[in-house]
Amino acid sequence: MLRFKYKILSDLTVVVLGAFFPGGTSVLAELAYLQEFTDIGAALQGSVSSVEEIKIWAGIQQGAAGLTTTIGELASTNKYLATVTNDQNERDRLLQYQQLMLLAMILSGGAAAISGAKLTSVRIANQANIIKPQIPDPPPAGFPTAIEQSVDYVIGNTLQTLSGIEAVVETLPLGVAANNICTIFNRFTDAQKLAFWTSFGRLSPRSWQYLNNGAGVNNWLKLYNNGIAEASKLDFITNQNLVDTILKFSIYPLLKAQFQSLSYPIKVRFFTAFKQINDATLQVFNTYSNSNRVQIWAQYNSEAQSIIGAKADIWLKLPQAMNYLKNNNYQAISDLYTIPIHPPTTLPNFPGVNYVTDNSIPISIFEDAAQIAIRTDDIPLIAANTGIPENIIQLAKQNFWIKERFLYNEIEIDDSNKIRAFQVGRFTKTKGDILQWENLAKKWRDA
Question: What is the value of pTM for the model shown?
């Protein structure tokens, strides 16, 4: 039987249920009056014309007067939609009207069975306020007369809805604390009041008290006005770092689109990780927004995500820096990060040989390392001693003793002055490095 009843519902019914009710189409199972949708569904499809009245609005106050329409009027709307107008904008407006009416009917007939019925009535009011300015004035020939009448009635009931909400906000269970929420709420527009209540109308007394302390309500307004979904999350709007960071990112449409695709827990981690980002780095983030950096960040584990957030400027520029590095364009990397390239340690007896600076190592160690780099007899000796092929030993020597690197280094200028800078040079070596290499080359030769 239930399967049959689902079949008779128009696609529009399912759209409305999915959009406005937390339970989506599962709400249908709790509507005792579901059989009424047989005629309504037919009307919405334009297949019947009946004078039977259907209650479409009863307000949120028990006993409030209701507005009725007929199945025939619903059918005439669909007929007009299907056969009279070719204007896509007008068709869209009529579809909005149909959604409004169907939503109101669902609420009227089953408010007691639907969780969050009062909040749903707020959504109806919002929908009516969206539709009202779109009704043609004067309406074109054949325009269904029921539309404007029913929308006006719903908007009128919005005032009752707001009045009831305002009364609740004025008497929130805050103990002896001043009602900061009410003070701010009273400055909201009607649309903002309805939206705020939609998000937080079900808070517990403890949660109201939590929201009353701090800037949560003001933060809600900032996020709501910027179209940020996290406005409805109590834990988000009461975290100032999260709010400040998401507002920074929201300035850039491409970045906003990327982080909106993340799940809520990942969003919280994202804005926690990047809470210290400055405006200059954020502009860099936006520059690379086409490379999906937000999604790339989301693939790392939580520890790496935190590190990346703290070093955002370095990470964001890394792909470009890697391209420069492939071409040994060190100056371009220096310009990219605005970090100078500091001269390396040089050796008078080995012209053209450069080492990364480490003032804790005597020059004699650098000279011994440079001497190993120019030896030619050590590779076959070490290969014979270890059984490792000579080509592998050659590669190891090239990487460890000869190859120059581009490094970010801390350089001690004097006892009280250290700088961080790029350098180009060979790795520094220790006395132990030199002794180990020489011993490997000596054992076989001396045996």
Answer: 0.55
